[in-house]
């Protein structure tokens, strides 16, 4: 069964492959892996700031930005989402 993260990951993979005009994902690929990794860090900081002062709606929005950029990083690294799910399951007590 597919969930929203799987669906988004699949769209990201197709953007990285087809590089359509106007795709933000494709523009990230052009900027390179260190840039994408930095974006993950920036978005994580925005999550921290939102959690301390900006309210729940903002926290949800920044969480989405963080998850999206994390998925792009995993996709660029060639790590299937199933591998992350598997590791999370392995850790579950
Ligand atoms: N879920 C997202 C998503 N979340 C966040 N973002 C983008 O991430 C950026 C975060 O904002 P920032 O201010 O930090 O960055 P910025 O100044 O816009 O960009 P930078 O120059 O800093 O990289 C915004 O441009 C958002 O549009 C996303 N961009 C795309 N998606 C989804 O990814 C899929 C593919 O999108 P495209 O590649 O654009 O077709 C689609 O399903 C989209 O809905």
Automatic annotation (TrEMBL):
Record has Protease as a keyword: no
Enzyme kind, highest EC tier: hydrolase
Catalytic activity entry: 1-(5-phospho-beta-D-ribosyl)-ATP + H2O = 1-(5-phospho-beta-D-ribosyl)-5'-AMP + diphosphate + H(+)
Annotated pathway: Amino-acid biosynthesis; L-histidine biosynthesis; L-histidine from 5-phospho-alpha-D-ribose 1-diphosphate: step 2/9
Cellular compartments annotated: Cytoplasm
Keyword list, A-Z: Amino-acid biosynthesis, ATP-binding, Cytoplasm, Histidine biosynthesis, Hydrolase, Nucleotide-binding
Protein name from the UniProt record: Phosphoribosyl-ATP pyrophosphatase
Biological source species: Metallosphaera cuprina (strain Ar-4)
Gene: hisE
């Amino acid at each position: 069964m597919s969930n929203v993260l799987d669906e988004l990951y699949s769209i990201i993979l197709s953007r990285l492959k087809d590089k359509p005009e106007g795709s933000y994902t494709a523009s990230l690929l052009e900027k390179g892996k260190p840039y994408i990794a930095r974006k993950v860090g920036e978005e994580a900081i925005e999550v921290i700031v939102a959690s301390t002062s900006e309210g729940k709606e903002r926290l949800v929005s920044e969480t989405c930005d963080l998850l999206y950029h994390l998925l792009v990083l995993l996709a660029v690294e060639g790590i299937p989402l199933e591998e992350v799910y598997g590791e999370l399951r392995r850790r579950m007590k």
